[in-house]
């Protein structure tokens, strides 16, 4: 990914030092060459000064800003950038959302087919069959318990039979709960892998399950490393998505300059693509590691969008 070079400078509040020179007495000022003779001097009447809105103030000692100029690069905000991929090995059967597209959380970016889903589907079907059997056993236990209670009311049964059928019903109900938990666990496994489970939840049993790679956040696709027909691994990053409402400027400061940089201070920068524009941000953090080759330390400046939207569109 190309990064745009930037020149960054930071405002440092430094007090002006040294005594101020005394103003010349009025007589000496009058003895100086006549200002009216100079073409660069314009004399205004009090009325003209008032109409122009010109005001004057007494000269005083103030804090004058100084600038620390550093080289840098515009980069993605890594705190707001994530990867998207598959949790299983498979073949890409449908894609591909292009780089630069804005996507929302949960939006499908690609579809995969994996043999691993066949094993999971077999386990799910087995769990469904066990659940159906346990439900039948529970129905039979309910009927037996009702029959025992009716016989007891008719003086044709015993209290012992009522207790036995009630106990068998409790066991059957527990078995149904356990079997349902196995089915829910299988469905949760499908959800974790990104498998579409709408048909399964409706009780249908499709022969082919799609694995969906979805966007984990709202943002812009900044990298794509997959095409239709590719064989991918669960460790392969397929997409990289970034929330471009915030970006970074990575500047480098020498050891001598670090004493003038603190987190939270205001920074401004220009880039070559927009030499007439000034963008602003704040120092987010300063790295603890010194680059042994350049003898510099990274300074991360956080910049809010849409102030740099043109920069991003021009090719981060």
Amino- and carboxy-terminal Cα gap? 7 Å
- What is the H-and-E element order? EHHEEEEEHHHEEEEEEEEH
Give the number of DSSP strands: 14
Helix content: 25-40%
CA-based gyration radius:
37 Å
- From the spread of the alpha carbons, the general shape counts as elongated
Overall mean pLDDT = 79
Number of helices: 6
Structural class: alpha+beta
Unreliable sequence segments: 11-36, 307-316
Q: Describe the biggest sheet?
A: 6 strands, antiparallel, barrel
Side-by-side strand order of the widest sheet = 1-2-11-14-13-12
The proportion of residues in beta strands is 25-35%
Brief digest:
This protein has 316 residues and is of the alpha+beta class. The protein has six helices and 14 strands.
Structure write-up:
This protein is an alpha+beta fold. The protein has a domain at 80-239. It has 6 helices and 14 strands. The protein has helices at 26-31, 46-52, 116-153, 159-193, 198-201, 309-313, and strands at 4-15, 63-76, 81-85, 90-94, 102-103, 108-113, 211-214, 219-224, 231-232, 237-242, 246-254, 266-271, 274-286, 296-304. The protein has a 6-stranded antiparallel barrel with strand order 1-2-11-14-13-12. Strands 3-10-8-5 form a 4-stranded antiparallel sheet, with no helix packed on it. A hairpin with a 2-residue loop joins strand 12 and strand 13. It starts with a strand and ends with a helix. Residues 11-36 and 307-316 have low confidence and may be disordered.
């Amino acid at each position: 990914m190309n990064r745009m070079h930037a020149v960054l400078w930071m405002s440092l509040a430094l007090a002006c030092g040294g005594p101020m020179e005394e103003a010349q007495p009025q007589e000496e000022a009058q003895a100086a060459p006549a200002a009216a003779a100079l073409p660069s001097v314009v004399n205004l009447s009090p009325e003209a000064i008032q109409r122009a809105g010109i005001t004057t103030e007494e000269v005083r000692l103030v804090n004058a800003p100084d600038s620390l100029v550093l080289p840098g690069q515009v980069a993605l905000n890594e705190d707001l950038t994530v990867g998207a991929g598959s949790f299983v090995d498979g073949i890409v059967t449908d894609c591909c959302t292009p780089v630069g597209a804005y996507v929302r959380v949960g939006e499908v970016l690609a579809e995969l087919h994996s043999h691993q889903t066949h094993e999971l589907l077999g386990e799910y079907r087995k769990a469904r069959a066990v659940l159906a059997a346990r439900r039948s056993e529970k129905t039979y236990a309910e009927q037996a318990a009702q029959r025992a209670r009716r016989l007891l009311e008719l003086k044709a049964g015993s209290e012992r039979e009522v207790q036995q059928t009630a106990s068998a019903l409790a066991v059957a109900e527990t078995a149904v709960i356990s079997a349902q938990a196995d089915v829910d666990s299988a469905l949760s496994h499908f959800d974790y892998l990104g498998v579409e489970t709408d048909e399964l939840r409706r009780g249908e049993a499709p022969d082919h399950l799609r694995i969906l790679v979805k966007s984990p956040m709202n943002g812009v696709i900044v990298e794509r490393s997959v095409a239709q027909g590719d064989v991918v691994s669960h460790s392969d990053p397929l997409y990289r998505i970034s929330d471009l409402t915030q970006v970074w400027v990575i500047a480098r400061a020498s050891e001598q300059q670090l004493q003038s940089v603190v987190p939270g201070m205001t920074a401004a920068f220009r880039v070559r693509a927009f030499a007439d524009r000034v963008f602003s941000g704040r120092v987010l953090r300063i790295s603890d590691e010194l680059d042994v080759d350049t003898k510099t330390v990274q300074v991360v400046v956080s910049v809010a969008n849409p102030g740099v939207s043109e920069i991003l569109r021009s090719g981060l």
